[in-house]
């Protein structure tokens, strides 16, 4: 999947220039930079000192200035404030359509969509996905998948009329491959725990369904078998390559390149996976509060008596490098 760049003579205004000329007084609704939650909308409650060393006492509020009952309060310097205009927060489906650009406005757009259960947002051809920790959001359940598939090549180049989804990226990649006879790539990136592994599974499932939606029953069954094999391989890869970290109980500690193979008719008929950059140091040690790879705990806690004797396994707690600084939990044995 390729990102297209375009040169525009006129584009969104940068907040940098607007901040230079912004003024703040008691009652002004603006943004302040919060250490724990980044940029938040606030109302200025008090101003102390003289420019340029003023201190602003602020409290979180809504866009119309209504103070939050249990809102956050803070005292911040001038460089931690950013101006706000209601028109700058007009809802957009694509962040490139914002009239003014700044971290505060970008985050508020994404945050407001998230609280409306809209977890996907376009940044041009890129799709930004937030982990909803909920698989049952009405817009994104699998029964909506045929609607995307039936748009076929008409959805290319912004022609889709459906809400943005991870499926949208997969759909564009598939039909670009079919229409232009060129291999496509989809890059999934993000912080630990952001949902990269799940996003890759969603993409794979969609490509399998999309490629055989208009095919015969036999061809659809073949794609389903391949998809099942891909999904069955995930727990094995995760056992040997995933571990608990401070931020994620099932963090991938390796990179994965998955190549899906399609026939001349566009039907999914094969797949292979290459793993790379495994965090080898975790095999012999890990930080406090973290764990080594899942497979060691599975073997140590789930082996039969025969296997314990064959592999000379002791009580799991005897392996200090597995449990050092980590409290043993019942999830050590994973199905």
UniProtKB/TrEMBL annotation:
Which InterPro entries does the record cross-reference, listed alphabetically?
Kinesin_motor_dom_sf, Myosin_head_motor_dom-like, P-loop_NTPase
Per the UniProt entry, what are the Gene Ontology biological process annotations, in alphabetical order?
A: actin filament organization
Q: Which PROSITE patterns match?
A: MYOSIN_MOTOR
Q: Which positions bind ATP?
A: 190-197
Keyword terms: Actin-binding, ATP-binding, Motor protein, Myosin, Nucleotide-binding
Q: Does the keyword Protein biosynthesis apply?
A: no
Q: Where is the Myosin motor domain?
A: 90-335
Source organism superkingdom: Eukaryota
* A GO molecular-function annotation: ATP binding
* CDD domains for the chain: MYSc
List, alphabetically, the SMART domains matched.
MYSc (SM00242)
Q: Which GO terms describe its cellular component?
A: cytoplasm; membrane; myosin complex
Return the similarity comment: Belongs to the TRAFAC class myosin-kinesin ATPase superfamily. Myosin family.
What is the protein name stated in its UniProt record?
Myosin motor domain-containing protein
Q: In which organism is this protein found? A: Eutreptiella gymnastica
